[in-house]
């Protein structure tokens, strides 16, 4: 059974992962400058009258941004491969490494084009994260008609450690649906989670300048004071921004679902699920109300329910 599945995965090797991709922007000095500032790279070759782009920016010129490329994007074959792994229970994903080869410098004004292929799918491997398959894609990047470099990118599609596969799907050893990930509780935020356990949403307040802050921090980001107390949020807020999660699927969640950045009436913002309305009806400015949702026998979380009638 495992050999048959691996044979199906291997059949995708050599197939296209992206075809006819075109960089959304010409190689340009502002992006080079922003990259160098972010990386702290002051090499003189990247500035001056005739600059070149840092070689490690190779992949940056191929990225489609939030809106994608519109054409020349990810291929059906690559989507099919990921769907095959998802369907077999390997629903978690992590980027593991990349390799780049540089063939010629990139200069402002260069038009970047690229193609990509599924180079390899490994045998099933067991790692500290879990058991799964490494998928490597190779992207060939061109500047005009000249080869500019090669970018190899590798991901691991896996079943998290502590889960097992049965009947082709990932399951918890204890239950059919895995538990939600546990929040990281430490000495800096323990008071927040103690409040949640008592159905209170507590916000830190600096004792010196009285600035409210969220998430919890060991010191005030306005004046640096280490002394603080708390105020309890009234629970009213509005959706300041949001995303709808479709991928990657994770067995503990039912996709798609909305994650909102909620601005509380007290002026601070926090991230949590928006519930009580279909994911495609969530809107910026939507009024929401705090409630506490028990997701399993051990964990209760603050979420925000859309006000009645606000789903339009």
Content of β-strand? 35-45%
Alpha-beta classification? mainly beta
Strand runs, count: 16
CATH superfamily of the largest domain, by name, is Hotdog Thioesterase
Q: Which stretches of 5+ consecutive residues score pLDDT under 50?
A: 166-175
How would you name the oligomeric state of the polypeptide chains in this document? single chain
Envelope shape: globular
Major β-sheet annotation: 6 strands, antiparallel
Number of helices: 4
Distance between the termini: 49 Å
Encode the helix/strand succession as letters.
HEHHEEEEEEEHEEEEEEEE
Proportion of helical residues: 10-25%
CATH class assignment of the largest domain: Alpha Beta
The CATH architecture of the largest domain is Roll
Mean pLDDT: 89
Number of domains: 2
Q: Write the CATH fold name of the largest domain.
A: Thiol Ester Dehydrase, Chain A
What Rg is obtained from the alpha carbons, in whole angstroms?
24 Å
State the gist of this model.
This protein is mainly β and 312 residues long.
Notes on the protein architecture:
With 312 residues, this protein is mainly β. The protein has two domains: 2-172, Roll (Thiol Ester Dehydrase, Chain A), CATH 3.10.129; 190-306, no CATH class. It is 13% helix and 38% strand. It contains four helices and 16 strands. It has helices at residues 2-10, 29-39, 76-87, 190-197, and strands at residues 16-22, 92-102, 112-121, 125-126, 130-143, 146-160, 163-166, 169-172, 202-206, 212-213, 228-232, 236-245, 257-264, 269-275, 287-294, 300-306. The strands form four sheets. Strands 1, 2, 3, 4, 5 and 6 form a six-stranded antiparallel sheet that branches. The model is unreliable at 166-175 (pLDDT under 50).
